[in-house]
Amino acid sequence: AQTVTQSQPEMSVQEAETVTLSCTYDTSESNYYLFWYKQPPSRQMILVIRQEAYKQQNATENRFSVNFQKAAKSFSLKISDSQLGDTAMYFCAFKGLARGGGGADGLTFGKGTHLIIQP
Amino acid sequence: NAGVTQTPKFQVLKTGQSMTLQCAQDMNHEYMSWYRQDPGMGLRLIHYSVGAGITDQGEVPNGYNVSRSTTEDFPLRLLSAAPSQTSVYFCASSYRGSSGYTFGSGTRLTVV
């Protein structure tokens, strides 16, 4: 079964700063997908960015980018020019392609990082 | 608006009661799944489905039942509610998993 680890339970930065959230995962699969989800106080889960493991190029979505290191099984999220609206829980998630048990056909989540953007 | 609709948004149950959490999507997604979110635990997969008539267990399936008779609907049944099932429940759907999952707004369930 896959595992996803987010080692930073909480982070706090000043508005306009750059912040990096870390995520590591463990899998025996070679093809998979990785995601970052944002959960603001409204509770809604919002997809921030996705990465396909077979693509070497790091994904970017406006102020959000990832540093994907496949050999190290690392998938960090960088938020540039942070804004007050970025305050939220951030979850890293893994999606394998192998069929079968252990959550292979759903998402495996880390425990999350609570990001606080200070004014 | 297209998306995933969950009902109800809040529910209080007594121990031993049964209920069904509803989930419907109008995006013609094949993949649907249920998660529970507990403080400090992230989201954990309960059950999932890769198409009508096909369901399977996730990480924490005990005490829950699912069926999928149509592409659109994927209800989650609590057979005999227990306080340990107090949680926030999310339903999610995806075209085939690779594009990411769209989540419903969640159901906060309290079992007393």
Unreliable stretches of chain B, pLDDT < 50, 5 or more residues?
A: none
Unreliable stretches of chain A:
none
Mean of pLDDT of chain B: 94
How large, in whole angstroms, is the Cα Rg of chain A? 14 Å
Please give the count of helices of chain A.
Answer: 0
Give the fraction of residues assigned to helices of chain B. Answer: under 10%
Profile the largest sheet of chain B: 7 strands, mixed
Biggest β-sheet description of chain A: 6 strands, mixed
Task: Describe the protein's architecture and organization.
- The complex is a heterodimer of chains A (119) and B (112).
- In chain A, the strands form three sheets. In chain A, strands 2, 5, 6, 10, 11 and 12 form a six-stranded mixed beta sheet that branches.
- In chain A, strand 8 (64-69) and strand 9 form a beta hairpin.
- Helix content of chain A is 0%, strand content 50%.
- Chain A is mostly beta strands and 119 residues long.
- With 112 residues, chain B is an all-beta fold.
- Chain B has no helices and eleven strands.
- Chain B has strands at residues 4-7, 10-13, 19-25, 31-38, 42-51, 54-57, 64-66, 76-78, 87-94, 102-103, 107-111.
- In chain B, the strands form two sheets. In chain B, strands 2, 4, 5, 6, 9, 10 and 11 form a seven-stranded mixed beta sheet that branches. A four-stranded antiparallel beta sheet of chain B has the order 1-3-8-7, with no helix packed on it.
- The interface between A and B is medium-sized, with 26 and 27 residues.
